[in-house]
Amino acid sequence: MGSISLFKPLFESAVERHAVPKDQLTLHADRAPAMKAKATALLLADLGVTKSQSRPTTSDDNPVSESCIKTLKYQPQFPKLFGSVQDAKAFCRSFFEWYNRDHHHLGIGLMTPDQVHYGQTDALHAARQKTLNQAFSANPNRFVNKTP
How far apart are CA 104 and CA 110, in angstroms? Predict the structure, then answer.
């Protein structure tokens, strides 16, 4: 019951903070005991969250999570060992804030996850295009064969 006592307030606050409508969200879970527990299933059902499970004996079927974990593990600041649970939590809070707000991901057009999540991509693409158009007008020889 320990895992669900940590999971429930975290998940409920995330759903509330992002105003996720009932029956819209899907949680992709591994097959760890906490994710297969009846208490977790009941909580997700109460919140209107659909749960998908990873394939048996397959740990890499969620490329988004795998990419995030790899980025986390290969950070130069990532310690070999945390001094305490509080140290680990503090490190992860800082890392995920950077990862979501400041880290521009190649796989999502050099946007940050926050920019994609909050629907800012169209405005950012338009601003980038305006800059490219200005660069082309100022120096068309710099661009080979066509406008950017």
Answer: 5
